[in-house]
Amino acid sequence: MLKKRGKLCFFVYNKVKRKELKLMKDISRLLASVRRPARYLGREINSVCRDPQQAEVHLALAYPDLYEVGMSHLGLKILYELVNNLPGIYAERVFAPAADLEQLLREQEIPLFSLESRTALHRFDLVGFTLQYELNYTAILFMLDCGRIPLHSSERGDHDPFVLGGGPLAYNPEPLAPFFDLLVIGDGEEALPEILKIYREWKKKGRRGRQKFLREAALLPGIYVPSLYRDYYDGDGKFAGIEALVPEASLPVRKRVVTDLEHTFYPECFVVPYMEIVHDRAVLELFRGCSQGCRFCQAGYVYRPVRERSAEKLREQAGRIINNSGLAELSLSSLSSSDYPAIGELIDTLEDDFADRHVALSLPSLRADTFAVRLAGRLYKGRAAGVTIAPEAGTQRLRNVINKKVTEDDVLEAAAVALREWQSHVKLYFMIGLPTETMEDLEGMVELVRKISVAGRSGGGRKKGPSRINVSVSTFVPKAHTPFQWEPQLETAEILRRQDYLRRELRKVRGVAFSWHDTSMSLLEAMLARGDRRLAPVVKRAYDLGGRLDSWNDLFSFSRWEEALNAAGLSARDYVGQSPAYTEPLPWDHIDTGIAKEFLIREHQRALQGGITPDCRGGKCAGCGLENCPQRQLTIDVGADLCVRPPVDS
Amino acid sequence: MYRYRVIFIKEGDFTCLSHLDLQRTFIRALRRAGVPLAFSQGFNPQPRLSFAAPLAVGIESDGEYLEFDLTLPRESDQLKSALNRQLPPELAIRRVQEVDPDAPFLTSLVQAALYIAVFPNPVAELASAVQSLKESAVLEVERKGNNAKKRVDIRPFIYSLHLQNASGESKLFMFLATGNQGGARPGEVLKLLPLQDGLIRVRRLAIFVQGPKDYITPEGETLSAYLDRMCINT
User: Fold this and answer.
1) Is A232 at the interface with chain B, CB within 8 A?
2) What is the ipTM of this complex?
3) Which residue of A160, A450, A630, B118 has the smallest Cβ count within 10 Å?
């Protein structure tokens, strides 16, 4: 039975085989004895319920975390609706079970199941994971294992599903290489249907010979089949490179880019959860990519170039999404939404359109300047929402190093507006351990927070009351494909010392609450973000030792990872403590983001000199080398005059 | 302003939805149905809508009541079919009726609710245990407050208990106080009984407000007439 758009559908029980019916009943029974059963209920409005037997290709879209996290992810919404609109293909969702359900599944020998038809994971044709966060890696193995799929691609037979991956962390896929049959590098809207087409042919021909399918898929641009490559090391055990083993395996693998976002598929029938999820709102994607060029930000490099949707298109999509979902909040999303050229007009139009329906608009990621904060202020009005400002570093010198083009005046004014004019909470994001950071920068951070606290109080603000300034300090993680890929992560002891300093000093500032990131989590993030294939057994071992949803602080345990590293004879510091030479091979060199390595080197050097690189929207091409970029200028003077005079500390 | 009262069921897997989940689900269903919802005033306008009596997770119901205000009138039958298209059959709407928008919401009037618990394999002591509950003067249970646990006597909130045995299974009818003046939850009563084999299914049959002489359903049927009609002989 096919679903009609925007309508509810029922599962056709009588078409289901008896064995599956029993599984469905078993699962209904389980729902009665787990916490938050709505996580596993399925049957949401706009979810697609069909008879899996009728589908030519049956795909599971898996998110390696709990329902409320996975359902908040835009990429999953895009692919779910996109794939389900293709003839003959049925995509279902599957999320990680919480500990209580895991225990019941194991006790009662029930495999992990999809939400829609409650099909066991191992009965799918393909299982695709999105790779968003390093500490989700154990959850991937956890889900495969609970779904009865062999963990290593080499152990899978003709009747096991193919395990696919994609998303930002696929840009350094090596620590996961042995577990995945195939990875999509870059945008998935075109690549995934191409893979499914090849799969359908392979299945029609009797689904024999996994290698045959994989080698054919490897011919598609942007497809990385890890088993068709080999990593090698020099005499000292240092990573030396990756080579292709068959002619089908391209080297490097160039990322996929959907060039025309305006005409690229965008979902309009969002699945509407029954339970509250992390981001419980409709989403518009204003543009993909970011032109700011913050040097620590992997998304800012790998999602290039900037591709926008027109305001008219966004308006049409907004209307249909709200009508089909009944959601009461619409997020205008992108990596830096105040950079959208007609953002003011877009907000005006949408507010008019939804005036009588009380749909709240929100801006998730804004630059820390007054323009952006005034925009947010218009939207939040009297709502008790907080405003997030991300200065990232405490001094102008260090902000120049990371190319965060916001001045202290910007930050102060933005925070003062939020605190004074609308009595809002303010959340400040900083990083510690950035390249070249000294005590002076930390002092600057404390000073900046103090100034904000003072500016927020003067002019009739509340004298006492709960803290209205939340300072959140994360630890710098040097990421692949950024200018800081040649930078080390600060040693744990030093991070702890700096966190201590901030905790001590910020306690003295009125109205401030301080939060920080777990140092061992940051260490593992960095290790996995920069890792090579030798880390795969470490991930496996961490899972064997009980690692599940490691991204949750209360479920995370560093000792499991330490033991796993020891067993492999490796140390996390070896991966994160080095500053490799520009000439040294890096484990992600075979993945080509389209950005020239020379550009990253130039940006790294410019960072160390404190030089900033302008926003490349508006004709100031910085020469990153991206071929299909509309901003690209062929003759770039890479010399000093491109480098605008950076602001200085007063 | 026009007020509508919706009577819906809750059963199957959907008993796992919490009261908040249910609120979210109906607000979104109303929004998708495109009805002209009336909103509250203020900085953060919310639809004017009220559930009569929150139902605990895991309990089925024959009659849940939701009231909401619209700015324009709508045909009850049209509302019913428009909303049912937006809801799973386990939350199907049975009736929609227009009610007085100036009257208080039902939630402030609800006094009692009738539940049935079905024991598939009743233990021998069940009857005597129910009897001793009826005869006890005080029945203390533990409740979680905001911070601390506290002990509450639920005996005054248990209006009547009635056990029926038929074809190997036992049915316990519980008429319990509910609403603003305090109440007992069916789960609290069941916990005071001896442990049972198998899943005990609990269903709310009806809710009651204070009538002139007897308790009456929101539709005006007296408790005794309701029990007669449902062939529940007490």
Assistant:
1) no
2) 0.92
3) A630
